[in-house]
Amino acid sequence: MSGAHLKVTDASWRPHRRMDPVLHPTSFEIAAGRVLGIVGPNGAGKSTLLRLLYRYQAPSTGRVEINGQNIWAMPARKTAQHVAAVLQEQAAAFGLSVREIIALGRTPHREGYASAGTQDRAVIDEVIALLDLRGLEHRDFSTLSGGERQRVMVARALAQQPQILILDEPTNHLDIRHQLEVLALIRQLDLTIVVSLHDLNMAANICDDILVLENGHPRGFGSPDALLTETLVSDTFRVNARREKLAPSDSSHLSFHLPT
Ligand SMILES: Nc1ncnc2c1ncn2[C@@H]1O[C@H](COP(=O)(O)OP(=O)(O)OP(=O)(O)O)[C@@H](O)[C@H]1O
User: Fold this and answer.
1) Cα(129)–Cα(152) distance, rounded to whole angstroms?
2) 132-138 — which CB contacts under 8 Å span 24+ positions?
3) Which of 38, 51, 73, 198 has its CA 20 to 30 A from that of 204?
């Protein structure tokens, strides 16, 4: 697996013609292999932007390009060979096992109704091991806990062998250990990653770049250190934010308080 260049130019989205945009024109560019964090308050437009990136919704204006190709000019199947998404809502599984769910990630790479070949099985085995799912692979997906399901959905996305991985709040439902494991995995994958996160400290730790959205508008794009200033975080999230150095690691840490 290796990443792809992602370029978003003036992409906006509005639900109906006469309504205000939910996402106003937004532009950014990330080189192959970088991790971009999307942060912002509830309703800021994070999931809406992600939907444009994995070709679920067409932008009302602007373009999304992967390695210079507009994703709406390619067949959906071709986009699915490049981009995989892990979403907050998990589809109903109708009695499928964990392994069968993960195998669905191979669909864009198969011809017609062909069943899983040797390469498909090897990829599925690899991601099952990577996400520590060996003990669960024959369980009915619907019997899993929220955190176990989340790991299965990450495994399914990786089975797609994408160049770009989109994750919408991937640490929801995960206990601390599995949060750290999923975040470490994100850092270690040789892919371009776009991840929405509510935890700004987590975002600052794992992301190369951050895009801040507020009320459907891009507020800034840049490195976590340069962008996530006390002023920007306080204004965007309507809190008093303080940035401190944690001893002994000397890493930067944001803390938050309600304004008095
Ligand atoms: N299909 C739609 N029709 C009308 N409004 C919509 C539609 N989809 C999203 N919205 C609105 O757009 C805004 C942004 O929603 P979005 O889900 O992108 O925000 P978010 O930043 O991901 O929020 P959260 O952090 O709460 O998950 C919200 O006010 C939402 O109600």
Assistant:
1) 11
2) 132/181, 133/98, 133/102, 136/98, 137/97, 137/98, 137/99, 137/102, 138/97, 138/98, 138/99
3) 51
Distance 46 CA to ligand 1 centre (A): 8
Ligand 1, closest atom to CA 45?
18
Of the candidate CATH numbers 1.10.10.10, 2.60.40.10, 3.40.50.620, 3.40.50.300, the domain formed by 6-90+161-228 belongs to 3.40.50.300
Distance of CA 6 from the midpoint of ligand 1 (Å): 23
Instruction: Give tens-digit pLDDT for 172-227.
Output: 878 888 888 888 888 888 999 999 999 999 999 999 999 999 999 999 999 999 99
What DSSP designation does 70 have? E
Whole-model pTM? 0.93
Residues constituting the chain: 260
Domain boundaries, the chain: 6-90+161-228
Question: What is the Å distance from ligand 1's center to 27 Cα?
Answer: 19
